[in-house]
Amino acid sequence: MGPDADDRGRRGHHRTRSRRAEALRARYGRGRFLGHGGEPRRAQAYDGELGAAVARAQEGDEAAFAVAYRLVHPALLAYVRGLVGDDAEDVMSDAWLEIARDLGRFKGEGAGFRGWTATIARHRALDHLRRQRVRPRPSALEQDVLELPGPQSTHDQAMEALSTEHALALVGELPRDQAEAVLLRVVVGLDGPAAARVLGKRPGAVRTAAYRGLKRLAERLSAESVTEEAPRTLGEST
User: Fold this and answer.
1) Are 210 and 193 in contact (CB under 8 A)?
2) What angle do helix axes 62-84 and 3-28 make, rounded to 10 degrees?
3) Per the count of CB atoms within 10 A, which of 49, 57, 111, 208 is most buried?
4) pLDDT in tens, 139-150
């Protein structure tokens, strides 16, 4: 099969995935990023709601599956966008097909479901990049994540400021290991061991990468605050 046929095949596959992504949004909605991590009781309530929805979905309750989708999809989409850029929604449509297909095999609670789905999403993103023969993007976040959890580390400024478009752009300047660690820990809300399982690394290495990434962000934001009268937030003109 020649190059032209390959291109036509890729375009057809892309259109199919785009239609699938649109169908998912129409059926289940875009979801909302609830945030968790800074307030233990809020995190417990979030994971409790998610775990209950997953359990019902495993029994065939489609409305419960829609709840689970809305709870985890925004953060997963943001993470995948950091890897593949504009193709994130298409990649996530593939990921959700796999999640739905293998849902019965999942064993765990809400926090475990977040880690399980993040692993699937990452694998699909890397598969996509291999097909495209390109390297993963360090990060390409835009406005998928506008509200993030409160800080659990000492880098309060960096974690709080991740709710701004400017700070999200700074994540893209981090080394890839630090960017992924920050996104999984702060955006997806995984703890060290769960993020390590997603990345196939040791928990200590992921914690160190996240710490260094947040430290870099804090230093950048602190330096900029000295030269600017006020930080720019989403919606303000430049």
Assistant:
1) no
2) 140
3) 57
4) 444 444 433 343
**What amino acid is encoded at 71 in this protein?**
L
In this predicted model, what pLDDT tens digit does every residue of 61-113 receive, in sequence order? 999 999 999 999 988 998 888 888 888 999 999 999 999 999 999 999 999 99
What is the rounded CA–CA span in Å between residue 2 and residue 117?
Answer: 36
Q: What is the DSSP code (8-state) at residue 36?
A: -
Q: Residue 238 has what pLDDT?
A: 41
Beta strand spans in 40-191 (E): none
Residue 148, phi-psi category: left (phi > 0), alpha (psi -120 to 50), beta (remainder)? beta
Asked whether 67 and 53 are in contact (CB, 8 A), the reply is yes
CA torsion, ordered 107, 200, 65, 105, to nearest 10 deg: -30
| Domains of the chain by start residue, with CATH | 17-132 (1.10.1740.10), 156-227 (1.10.10.10)
Asked if 66 and 28 touch (Cβ cutoff 8 Å), the reply is yes
**Better-scored residue on pLDDT, 52 or 5:** 52
Report the distance separating Cα 137 and Cα 236, nearest Å.
27
Q: How far apart are CA 66 and CA 212, in angstroms?
A: 36
Tell me the angle at which helices 40-58 and 110-132 cross, rounded to the nearest 10 degrees.
80
Task: Identify the H or E element spanning 218.
Answer: helix 203-227
